[in-house]
Design goal:
The protein has 67 residues and is mainly alpha-helical. The chain has a domain of 45 residues. Helix content is 76%, strand content 0%. Helix 2 packs antiparallel against helix 3. The longest helix is centred in the middle third of the chain and has 25 residues. It starts with a helix and ends in a 6-residue tail after the last helix.
Length: 67
């Protein structure tokens, strides 16, 4: 899958937002297929995409300010 292999380094904030939205779209589409087929490979792909999405969102939110 092209999205999984794409490099996430040196991305602008807008690129990260677009990547996060694309990941969400892919995950939701795969979920619809998974509901019908119950294929474990699709579930594994969804898990990998979710991990990548979490990393992107973690980077978008940044570090919490220390007081």
């Amino acid at each position: 899958m092209a999205f999984e292999n794409a490099s996430m380094s040196n991305m602008s904030t807008s690129d990260r937002v677009a990547a996060s939205r694309e990941a969400k779209r892919l995950i939701l589409a795969l979920n619809e297929i998974f509901k019908e087929t119950k294929d474990s490979e699709i579930m594994d792909t969804m898990k990998r995409l979710t991990e990548k999405k979490k990393k992107i969102e973690k980077r978008l939110k940044g570090r919490p300010d220390s007081m």
